[in-house]
Amino acid sequence: MNNRINGIHHITAIAANAQRNYDFYTKVLGLRMVKKTVNFDDPGTYHFYFGNETGTPGTILTFFPWEGIVKGRTGTGMATEIDYSVPAGSLPFWADRFKRSNIVHGQEGERLGELYLPFEDPDGLKLNLVVSKNSDNRRPWTTADVGEQAAAKGFHGITLTLKNIRPTAGILTDVFGYKQTEQEGNRYRFVTDAVEGASIVDLVEAPEMMIGHVAGGTNHHVAFRVQDDNILMEYREKILGRGLNITPKINRDYFFSLYFREPGGVLFELATDNPGFTVDEPLNQLGSALKLPVQHEHLRAKIEQQLPSLQQ
């Protein structure tokens, strides 16, 4: 890794119930709760981070569980599908597990030469388990129910659905360093060779589809990975050079961020590897305590009263 975009850092989505969200991603999908904090801009709402043991960039799915939020609508101008990489031969295990857990799922299929199993989380967020045709040597988080032979290794990729893919493709190739590698129908695959996993962005062109509505069961934004905040600021200049608005650097405690809306309407974030999730709690205790940003710590008692109780 160097001064390149190193694939996906994290993906953030919206849920309507904190306990249900926690139970699905830790108990059914078998991910680790890496961090339990709050939405920095709305501290009466949790911000959950699910990933591997350490919360390695490329494994982190995060949620704002706004209690009782209305259901969103998948459409253009948003990230519409999240792909997780799983081991070869594991899809029957997952289909059976989803069936026993009453999880909405489709049939095993093939797309761009890869087997996949589509499913939805309890809020209707669309996800796929994908057997990558390339090697994925990332070590997954495992549980008593989901062993290494089936566990999700981290993201395989993300799908963005757009009215017109060309402006977004220009950001991916000219700024982020991705290359278009394949096409299947109206799906165009872009890949970076800067990192082994979480390296794929699929653009689906759907000019007749309605614009999406971001709410429960939809993705809020996609964050791309850079090594540190010096490189982060280099990319800020590149984005400004494309005539796009981008935020100043924001400290998210576990990484530094910039946000901008790419030309197709999807909210993009650039996020750093540093300082990581062990900055405020040891590795063996990640996700066990409510962590608040410094600016909200003096409100802890009030915030803890507002947040729904969570059984972990």
Write up what this structure looks like.
This protein is of the alpha+beta class. It has a single domain, classed as 2,3-Dihydroxybiphenyl 1,2-Dioxygenase, domain 1 (Roll). It is built from six helices and 16 strands. The longest helix has 13 residues. The chain is globular and about 50 Å long. The mean pLDDT is 97.
Name the strands of the widest sheet in spatial order.
2-3-4-1-13-16-15-14
Binned strand content: 25-35%
State the fourth-level CATH superfamily.
2,3-Dihydroxybiphenyl 1,2-Dioxygenase, domain 1
Largest sheet: 8 strands, mixed
Radius of gyration: 18 Å
Net shape: globular
Task: Based on the model shown, name its key terms.
18% helix; 312 residues; single chain; eight-stranded mixed β-sheet; 2,3-Dihydroxybiphenyl 1,2-Dioxygenase, domain 1; alpha+beta
SSE layout and pairing:
Blueprint lengths: L7 E8 L2 H11 L3 E8 L2 E10 L8 E6 L12 E8 L5 H10 L8 E3 L2 E7 L5 E6 L22 E9 L3 H10 L3 E6 L2 E5 L8 E6 L13 E8 L2 H13 L8 E2 L3 E7 L5 E9 L18 H4 L2 H7 L6
Parallel strand pairs: 1-4, 5-8, 9-12, 13-16
Antiparallel strand pairs: 1-13, 2-3, 3-4, 5-9, 6-7, 7-8, 10-11, 11-12, 14-15, 15-16
